[in-house]
Amino acid sequence: xxxxxxxxxxxxxxxxxxxxxxxxxxxxxxxxxxxxxxxxxxxxxxxxxxxxxxxxxxxxxxxxxxxxxxxxxxxxxxxxxxxxxxxxxxxxxxxxxxxxxxxxxxxxxxxxxxxxxxxxxxxxxxxxxxxxxxxxxxxxxxxxxxxxxxxxxxxxxxxxxxxxxxxxxxxxxxxxxxxxxxxxxxxxxxxxxxxxxxxxxxxxxxxxxxxxxxxxxxxxxxxxxxxxxxxxxxxxxxxxxxxxxxxxxxxxxxxxxxxxxxxxxxxxxxxxxxxxxxxxxxxxxxxxxxxxxxxxxxxxxxxxxxxxxxxxxxxxxxxxxxxxxxxxxxxxxxxxxxxxxxxxxxxxxxxxxx
Length: 354
Fold this sequence. Notes:
Elements: H1 2-13, H2 16-33, E1 55-56, E2 65-67, H3 70-87, H4 93-103, H5 108-116, H6 123-128, E3 132-134, H7 137-147, H8 153-176, H9 187-193, H10 200-234, H11 243-253, H12 255-272, H13 278-289, E4 293-294, E5 300-301, H14 326-350
Antiparallel strand pairs: 1-3, 2-3, 4-5
Helix pairs in contact: 1-10, 2-8, 2-10, 3-4, 8-10, 8-11, 8-13, 10-11, 10-12, 12-14
């Protein structure tokens, strides 16, 4: 088993596609996470200047946005509704104000239903747009301090890193691992392997272990690079950066996905005697894993999917969170990978020549 695993790792280290893919992944991940490395406390007189709207539904602190408190959200929402009623529904000031007054004692659902009676169907959308507002220097600094009071900066950054590293590694590894069984599934080699006194368990453990070890090497390289960037960029600003945050996030949200991809390759390669059919299947699997859906309230977003091999951390930097049931799904992935490995062993044994 170990000799097979070492051979696979050596073969990949000689493959230019491995190094090209790592370089491309670093560049693409950096393009997406670099804005978070600019987060800092604003000094006296410093402001964040941009032409973005005053309020939005998905703002981030590096653009100067902070979450709006409930009282402020309601005030901004009412002002926006009044503005629309006057400009688009041609009400005068008094009529629009009377509508606003009627809304005072209603909850969000009741208000939306009430406004639909006037033909106004975008009230909930307008409320979502009040989630974040451009903050003052004091508000931005207080928000950062509050979020970093009990958690390190790298706790949040590692999640954003895992979001994009998991996405790009999924596509990269899907292409890279097509070489894992390529040589062994050629007609003469495949038949010869089945005459050798190597057990199915040892053979598949070596192949799957070798492929997974390559994924570990890629992920380790990405972790060291972005941990170093994070440490250099924000460490001197007084923000805490810990390598353990990166490692824990990898173990929970990326490595089970990589194990599943390697296991699927082993099954399809032995089933079809070629690894190539696994490529389109895994690409479709990634698309399925990355698709959004609607929750019980009918709101569209990313909530994760059963046995998904992708975990996305959407939302702003300090409020991002894994989708519901993500850890349970990752546990099921490990179990499913074990079952696929066992099934692959049975296929190998059935085709063995004694």
